């Protein structure tokens, strides 16, 4: 068996299941001479290992714990590398693939489509992990929760001027964060279910990613127009969310009492890779445009949710409805996050970003030169942890929680700034916003995030709305 437990769904009070005890070898008689030989061999092996560790500790920096992934490792690989001496000829490679153990992928009934249920997923994942990571995932990839970040956009060019360039900048932002935190990013432009269009298109992608990445414990969806504006912050997966299978931005009172369709936001969410989640995605998709009951669901949502303005079944209203009507089945394992900006509404954030950046620079100067030292980009996790620890101090720090917050007195960087309603690819924002406010807000947020990346390369933007850069002064 693998040396670590497969990350199953959270269903009971105890959370994840405990690992089964290892089998102990049966007792047997050994001659004294053989015992002596074994002890000598063991002593030599221990000495060799200690010597190797001593050299490796001099050559490699100590790993820094991180809640998203192991930052001490390079960009993660999903599979262990093959030994160098393995036959690399075409026949040899084919023979190795043909001889690989059978897994759930070999089941002809397996379907990635949302209209075909996958059963027994937790057991199938556990067996796959046992075969591919016999010593456990952490033995290969270091500490931390294993995450696949997902985002995507349409496959054809944007209608609005500059829309494709803006999508490129949004993508670069996610690539930067994934690289800094050692997580994998999948950006999709294919419509996996032709009838599940617009905001519904993400559900088939997320579901397919769960099956394509059994090594990932979490799948993290971010809408294309969401900007990660705090490159240092990592969601508390292993602590705050350890008893939950779904994390979305929202408020319990707004969803369960006010029955509001805007009591949560479905544009950014974390979902655990397990059977509960697959079943939830199936229930969610059943309310979408691929369902023959789509029109009926729209009327049901309008009648159930207090402030829904139309009779269209959209993904956000459907999510609120599922939690509201199934508090034990779905709501009990869903965390509605509002203690920090898991995803923040851009209109209440962007005008404060210049003040946020100024307070961070002032705090770094107050705490001495160590936080401003030049360092390799691969050391980002260590410096991010030190910076956040300093910023939390009451004396000289920056008020607010890690990841930002809504109070006017909070000045920490918002984790995610979501430009909902701006429609950068379509060319025309929601009528309540102007093109200028959206365009300026997006540039401010993207430049704030980009400056956090550029500092490792010795540069920063010349201003919050400027594209040119200048050398960064120590």
TrEMBL record:
The transmembrane segments are 38-59
Could you tell me which InterPro entries the record lists for this protein? Glyco_trans_34, Nucleotide-diphossugar_trans
What is a single cellular component term in the Gene Ontology annotation?
endosome
Q: Which residues form a coiled coil?
A: none
The principal localisation class reads Golgi
What family does the database annotate? Belongs to the glycosyltransferase 34 family.
Q: Under which name does UniProt file this protein?
A: Glycosyltransferase 7
